[in-house]
Write a structure and sequence with these properties.
about 35% helix, Translation Initiation Factor IF3, 9 strands, alpha+beta, 2 domains
């Protein structure tokens, strides 16, 4: 085989693999602790839009001068934003001080078939189980390894009736 042809094929494979890549952009929203309610709501709507586009959002509260003595106001602002976005966003990095700035990283929540939100943040359960009654099929999503497992009714024959009822009630 010709070396030039080999290099050409490598370049084609690299180009083909780049087609299927998705780039996640980190958008940043900056605020001050004394930001007005309407402005916070406006920025919260922008965060929702960024998360729907598939981007991550870094929310920063900047402190100046005497505001450094009242960092609790900034933390309350970040918690308020998180409360407004509880169905759309998952915390990937909780609020923490970095010099004069308090930052928090948000990511989008994934959606299940039934519309139940699954998040990838540190505040979520590691394993979520959904029972699909008509098909007697169980779908188990392991967030940590990004894998989905399916078990049918035949594979669950060894389980007792109590275990099945307990799983359905969750």
């Amino acid at each position: 085989m010709d070396f030039g042809k080999y290099k050409y094929e490598l370049a084609k494979k690299a180009h083909e693999s780049k087609k299927h890549q998705s780039v996640i952009v980190v958008k940043e929203i900056k605020m001050r602790p004394r930001t007005d309610d309407h402005d916070v709501q406006f920025k919260t709507n922008n965060i929702k839009r960024f998360l729907e586009e598939g981007n991550k959002v870094k929310v920063t509260v900047m402190f100046r001068g005497r505001e450094m003595a009242h960092t609790t106001h900034g933390r309350a602002l970040l918690e308020r934003i998180l409360a407004d976005l509880q169905n759309e966003a998952a915390v990937e990095q909780p609020p923490r001080m970095e010099g004069r700035n308090m930052t928090m990283m948000l990511g989008a929540r994934q959606r299940c078939n039934e519309g139940e939100a699954i998040s990838r943040g540190s505040q979520t359960a590691r394993r979520i189980t959904i029972i699909d009654d008509p098909a007697e099929r169980e779908l188990r999503v392991d967030i940590q390894s990004n894998r989905a497992y399916q078990r049918t009714a035949e594979s669950r024959k060894g389980e007792s009736e109590w275990q099945r009822q307990n799983q359905k009630s969750k």
